[in-house]
Design brief:
The complex is a heterodimer. By secondary structure, chain A is an alpha/beta fold. Chain A contains 13 helices and 12 strands. In chain A, β4 and β5 form a beta hairpin. The longest helix of chain A has 18 residues. By secondary structure, chain B is an alpha/beta fold. Chain B has a domain of about 70 residues. Chain B is about 30% helix and about 25% strand. In chain B, the strands form 2 sheets. An 8-stranded mixed sheet of chain B has the order 6-7-8-3-9-10-12-11, with helices on both faces. The radius of gyration of chain B is 21 Å and the shape is globular. Classes of the chains: A alpha/beta, B alpha/beta. The interface between A and B is large, with 38 and 36 residues.
Chain lengths: ~375, ~325
C-alpha cells in the first residue's frame, strides 16, 4: 500500500474545481538591521489547493508559518516566491502591488482576536455598512439596513444588535460580527486565522458550526488556520500539517487523524489531552518524536537522514500523503520502524492500515 | 492522598456590587482539598471559578466582597488575616499561577532579579544566596540557569510559563492555585508543562487547585474535581468517575463542548452563545440542556449538592441520572 508518487502534486484536479491553488509559496523575513543580508524562511515552498466549497485546515504549532500563509493569500504580505492562483489568474503577477478591490471581493479574512479586530468606537452596523457600500452591494440607507440585518441573521445574531457597540457583545458574538463583515462582500473564499482560539469553550462549537454551514449552504471555500487538531477534524474536509514553514503531511481529516504518519503529526496528536487514552504520557517516546522533529540530522528510526536529502511526498493512503523518508517505497512496511514500533497506540492503527505488519495487542481497553 | 483537608471552603459567597444591581458570583460553594491532592474546578467563562481562586488568595477588591462563608487553611481562618500577616501568608503558604501567566512577568526586569526578589523579601536572604536558590529553581523546571540574566521577551512562551511555575514554587507553598495555566500555549508545550507540574507535585507533595474549562486536560491531571455553573457547584466527584459517568447534564454538556479526536464525525451543538447573567437568566435553560417536556419542570435554581454515593456529590436536576452511580 505504501507506494510512492513522489512527483505527484496534491491537487491534480482541473483548475475549475479549485478555488485557490498555491504553488511554491515562499516567504523570507529579513533579520537584523537595514543593511543586513540575514533572513529567516517562514514559509518554504508550500504547495496546496483549496477545492471549491471545502474547508481546508492548516494546523501546526505557534511559529510554524501558518499565519504567514494566510497573510500571503490575503495579500497582506508579499511572498518572496511562488504563485497564488485565484479564479484562474496568478494574482501575484496580475496585481503586483497589493490586492485590488476585485480580489478583496473574492477573498476575505477573519482574524484571530475579535477584541482587537473591531473598532470599539463604532456600532456593529458600521462594520457591515463599509464593505457593503465600498463594494457596491448596497447603495441606499434602506438597502444597507436590510442587507446588514440579513447578514446578522446569517451568522446567528439578531437585527437589534446592529446598534450595539463591540464592548456590549461577548467574544463569540464579536467573532460572528467579524464573519458577517467578511460575508458582506459575498466572497468565494474566507481565510480564517485561528477564529476560535481566543474564544471560550462554550462558544467554540457555535463558530465551527457556522463555518460548516457557510460551506454547505453558500459553497464558500475556507482556509481554516488552527492549532487545535480536534477543531480541524470536526469541521475541515482536508487537513494539512505545517511544521517549520513546510507542509509535512496532508490528507482527508478523519483519515489523517486516524493514521498520522509524520513524526510531527504524531507528536501533535499525542499531546492532545484525552482521558480515554490508554497509554499515558511516555517521555521516552516523546523524546524520540521530538528528536525526529527538532533535530532531523539523525533519524531516531534509523531511516535516511532528512538533512542530506529533503523528503518528497509519499502516498500512504487514499487521499493522504506524507513527506518522510520512512514511507519511501524501498522501505517495506515490515522493516519500517515507524510502523512496527509499539510505543504508541497510533501504531496499532497504522499497523492495521498496513496489513503486512504484525497486529498490535495494544488496542484501547475501553 | 491524605484525608486531612489542607484547605476547607465552606458556604463561600462572593458578591459584586454594581451601581444598580448586585451579582452573586459565588453562591454557597463548599469544597475541600486534601494534602497532596490535585483538585480540579471546571466551568465555562463567567461561572465564578476565578473568583473562587481570588477569594482564597484574598485578592478580591471592590466591588467584589466576600459576604459569607469561611475559608480555612490548615485550620486557620484566612478571612481573618490582616495587613502584614496576610502579606507573609501569601506566596509562602499559597502561591498562584495566573491566567496568561506569561504576561505576568515584568518585561523590564531579568528573570533572575524577579526571582531574587522573592527570596530577599520573604526569607531575608542575601542577593548571592538568593541567586543560587533561583538557579536551583530554574533547574527544577528544566531551564538552564544562564537564563537568570535573560529578559522575559528572550524566552519562548513555554519557558516563560515554566519560569512562572518556578517562581510560584520558590517558597515551597503547601497549596498551588493554577488559573488556566496553559491557555495560549500550543498542545505540545501544554502537555509538557502539565507533565512537569505532575512530576513536581509528586516530588514536592504540594496540593493543587487547578482551574480550567478544558475537561479533558483536567481529568488527566486531577484526582478529584468539581464542575461549577453560575456561581454554584453542580457536581463533585473523583475525576475519572465523573468523566466515565457524569451525573449532571451540564457536566456532560461541558465534556461535549470539545470535538473528539476519535470516532465518527458527529455534529455537536456545544453550549449556547447567549449572554449569560448570574442573576437568573431568562429564556433558554442556563445549562444549555434541552429537556423533554415531561422533565422540564425545573425552576432553573441550582439546589445544594447532595451526596449520592460516598464522595460523590451532585446538585440534582430533573435529568440527573442517579442510577448511573451503580455502575
Amino acid at each position: 500500500m505504501t507506494t510512492s508518487t513522489g512527483q505527484r502534486r496534491p491537487g491534480t484536479a482541473p483548475i475549475d474545481d479549485v478555488s485557490v491553488r498555491v504553488r511554491g509559496l515562499t516567504k523570507d523575513f529579513p533579520l537584523g538591521g537595514l543593511f543586513s543580508r540575514r533572513s529567516v524562511r517562514a514559509v518554504d515552498n508550500v504547495d496546496f489547493d483549496i477545492p471549491r466549497g471545502t474547508i481546508v485546515a492548516l494546523v501546526g504549532e505557534s511559529g510554524s508559518g501558518k499565519s504567514t500563509v494566510a497573510r500571503a493569500l490575503a495579500r497582506l504580505e508579499r511572498p518572496t516566491a511562488g504563485s497564488i492562483v485565484v479564479g484562474g489568474r496568478d494574482v501575484l503577477k496580475t496585481e503586483k502591488s497589493a490586492a485590488s478591490r476585485r480580489y478583496r471581493g473574492t477573498v476575505q479574512m477573519v482574524f484571530q482576536d475579535p477584541f482587537g479586530s473591531l473598532n470599539p468606537a463604532h456600532r456593529v452596523e458600521h462594520f457591515l455598512e463599509r464593505p457593503l457600500r465600498i463594494h457596491g452591494k448596497a447603495r441606499t440607507r434602506q438597502e444597507v439596513r436590510r442587507q446588514s440585518a440579513e447578514l446578522m441573521r446569517t451568522v446567528g445574531l439578531t437585527e437589534d444588535m446592529l446598534d450595539s457597540y463591540p464592548h456590549e457583545l461577548s467574544g463569540g458574538q464579536r467573532q460572528r460580527v467579524s464573519i458577517a463583515r467578511a460575508l458582506a462582500v459575498d466572497p468565494e473564499i474566507i481565510l480564517a486565522d485561528e477564529p476560535t482560539s481566543m474564544l471560550d469553550v462554550s462558544v467554540r462549537i457555535g463558530i465551527l458550526n457556522l463555518m460548516a454551514r457557510l460551506r454547505d449552504e453558500r459553497g464558500i471555500s475556507m482556509l481554516f488556520i488552527t492549532h487545535d487538531l480536534a477543531s480541524a477534524r470536526y469541521v475541515a474536509d482536508t487537513t494539512l500539517v505545517m511544521f517549520a514553514g513546510a507542509l509535512v503531511e496532508g490528507g482527508e481529516s478523519l483519515e489523517l487523524m486516524q493514521n498520522p504518519s509524520h513524526p510531527y503529526t504524531r507528536l501533535l496528536l499525542s499531546a492532545v489531552p484525552d482521558p480515554a487514552r490508554t497509554v499515558r504520557y511516555d517521555p521516552i517516546h516523546r523524546a524520540r518524536l521530538r528528536q525526529a522533529v527538532l533535530a532531523p540530522t539523525t533519524c531516531p528510526w534509523q531511516g535516511p537522514d532528512c538533512s542530506r536529502s529533503v523528503p518528497v511526498r509519499h502516498t500512504v493512503g487514499p487521499d493522504h500523503w506524507v513527506r518522510c523518508h520512512l514511507y519511501a517505497p524501498q522501505v517495506s512496511a515490515l522493516s519500517n520502524p515507524l510502523l512496527t514500533d509499539h510505543d504508541s497506540e497510533f501504531d496499532s492503527e497504522l499497523d492495521s492500515a498496513h496489513d503486512s505488519a504484525p497486529a498490535s495487542t495494544r488496542k484501547a481497553a475501553r | 492522598m491524605s484525608t486531612t483537608p489542607i484547605l476547607e471552603v465552606t458556604n463561600l459567597r462572593v458578591e459584586y456590587h454594581g451601581a444598580n444591581r448586585q451579582v452573586v458570583a459565588v453562591n454557597d460553594v463548599s469544597f475541600s482539598i486534601g494534602e497532596g491532592e490535585i483538585f480540579g474546578l471546571a466551568g465555562e467563562s463567567g461561572c465564578g471559578k476565578s473568583t473562587v481562586a481570588n477569594a482564597i488568595m484574598r485578592l478580591l477588591k471592590d466591588p467584589a466582597e466576600i459576604t459569607g462563608g469561611q475559608i480555612r487553611f490548615k485550620g486557620r481562618d484566612l478571612l481573618a488575616l490582616r495587613g502584614e500577616e496576610l502579606r507573609r501568608f501569601r506566596w509562602k503558604e499559597i502561591a498562584m499561577i495566573f491566567q496568561s501567566a506569561m504576561n505576568s512577568l515584568n518585561p523590564v526586569m531579568t528573570i533572575g532579579s524577579q526571582m531574587v526578589d522573592i527570596f530577599t523579601t520573604h526569607e531575608g536572604l542575601s542577593v548571592k544566596q538568593a541567586r543560587s536558590r533561583s538557579a536551583e529553581l530554574l533547574r527544577l523546571v528544566s531551564i538552564d540557569p544562564v537564563r537568570l540574566d535573560s529578559y522575559p521577551h528572550q524566552l519562548s512562551g513555554g519557558m516563560r510559563q515554566r519560569a512562572v511555575i518556578a517562581m510560584a514554587l520558590a517558597l515551597e507553598p503547601s497549596l498551588l492555585i493554577m488559573d488556566e495555566p496553559t491557555t495560549a500555549l500550543d498542545v505540545v508545550v501544554q502537555q509538557e508543562i502539565m507533565a512537569q507540574i505532575s512530576d513536581l507535585q509528586r516530588q514536592l507533595g504540594f496540593s493543587v487547585l487547578f482551574i480550567t474549562h478544558d475537561m479533558s486536560l483536567m481529568v488527566e491531571l486531577s484526582h478529584r474535581m468539581a464542575v461549577m455553573h453560575s456561581g454554584r457547584l453542580v457536581e463533585m466527584a473523583d475525576a475519572e468517575l465523573m468523566f466515565d459517568s457524569p451525573l449532571h447534564p451540564y457536566t456532560l454538556s461541558l465534556m461535549n463542548a470539545f470535538p473528539p479526536l476519535t470516532g465518527p464525525r458527529v455534529r455537536l451543538t456545544g453550549l449556547s452563545d447567549s449572554v449569560r447573567a448570574a442573576d437568573g437568566s431568562a429564556g433558554s435553560c442556563s445549562f444549555h440542556v434541552s429537556c423533554p417536556p415531561d422533565l422540564a419542570n425545573c425552576s432553573g435554581n441550582i439546589p445544594d449538592l447532595r451526596e449520592v454515593a460516598p464522595g460523590r456529590f451532585v446538585a440534582e436536576h430533573p435529568r440527573t441520572s442517579i442510577e448511573g452511580t451503580a455502575a
